[in-house]
Each structure stands twice: as C-alpha cells, then as structure tokens.
C-alpha cells in the first residue's frame, strides 16, 4: 500500500463521516421542526 493509497483511504473515510454528520444534522432539524 503506497502513501497515496493511504491518504486516499483516509480522505474517503473523512468524506463518509462528513456526509453522515450532515445527514444526522438534517434529521435532527426535521425532528425539531415537526415538534414545534
């Protein structure tokens, strides 16, 4: 495994975590809107 592969792998994981966080935030926002 070369350095480039390693960094691409870490970057892909970071991107996945970011999208999960965005989805979680949107989900929480919709929950708050439906409550009020």
Describe this structure as you would to a colleague.
The radius of gyration is 16 Å and the shape is rod-shaped. Helices cover 92% and strands 0% of the residues. It has one helix and no strands. The longest helix is centred in the middle third of the chain and has 33 residues, at 3-35. With 36 residues, the chain is an all-alpha fold. The chain has one helix at 3-35. The model has no long low-confidence stretch (mean pLDDT 93).
In short:
The chain is mainly α and 36 residues long. It has one helix at residues 3-35.
Question: Topology, pairings included?
Answer:
Layout: H1 3-35
Spans of at least 5 consecutive residues with low confidence: none
How is the biggest beta sheet arranged?
none
User: What would the principal axes of the Cα set say about the shape?
Assistant: rod-shaped
Radius of gyration: 16 Å
- End-to-end CA span: 52 Å
- What is the subunit arrangement here? single chain
The tally of beta strands, per DSSP, is 0
Helix coverage percent: over 70%
Element order, helices and strands?
A: H
Backbone structural class: mainly alpha
**Alpha plus pi helix count:** 1
Strand content: under 5%
Mean pLDDT: 93
Key features?
rod-shaped, mainly alpha, about 0% strand, about 35 residues, single chain
């Amino acid at each position: 495994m070369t350095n480039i592969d390693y960094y691409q792998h870490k970057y892909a994981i970071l991107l996945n975590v970011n999208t999960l966080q965005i989805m979680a935030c949107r989900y929480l926002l919709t929950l708050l809107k439906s409550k009020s």
